[in-house]
Amino acid sequence: MKNKNKVMRNMLIGMIGAAICMVACWLSGAYGEGNVRNGYIQSNWPKMPFMRFEISLILSGLGIALNYVGLRDYIKLFRYMRRKRGVLNRQMGSLFEVGAIAYCIAYLFIQSGYIMMALVYKLLFATNLMGADIISTTEGMFYYIAIPLFAYLIVSIVGMSVAYMHFLWNGLMRVSRICILFNPLIFFGIGELLKLTKLYYLVDFAAASVPFGMILMMAAGMVGVAKQPNPKPRV
Predict the structure, then answer these.
(1) Burial of 170 by CB count in 10 Å (0-12 exposed, 13-18 middle, 19+ buried)?
(2) What is the pLDDT of residues 208-226, one digit of tens each?
């Protein structure tokens, strides 16, 4: 594989971007002790300062841009792999590419959507409206974007993770098969399970479970690139 050091460097940049996305998720989605969830509404939203949401959006834009640098070279890695051994590899390489691009769109879309909900609820909470009216107004607005939001989420997480697991399971990535668990889909599921515990520190960690899965997937990619054969010198 050509330019291995450059690919590994860009994947490291992608890991840094995913770590920034984790911080952005915690700023907007770690609600702390005493939070009660009512549908999509969080009772601690009114207690959270506006600055947290503003910084979260800024970090989201920076983080996903850096994350894309790594994903772009992950796409190159799978393009390199999908040339080998059949049609299925080409299809999986294309699936990862679609999922990666959808993820970069979906992450900002989802962050903006949830922050918009939180800010509207927070602003309405300071008015004389009844609690039921505030909840119905906030959730009603969210339902306008719910379908494309969840569609992007499913396509991005499933697309990337399924393709990644395919290449890893078939030995093309040259890393341990235990790394098949290091992907956004698995950690999305873990995050949903953590939310069922009702322990606020686990629920708060779950807010950043998908970017954490992205970091681990990037790390596995770096190891896989390091183990790819060097190009044969031209005679």
Answers:
(1) middle
(2) 999 999 999 999 999 888 8
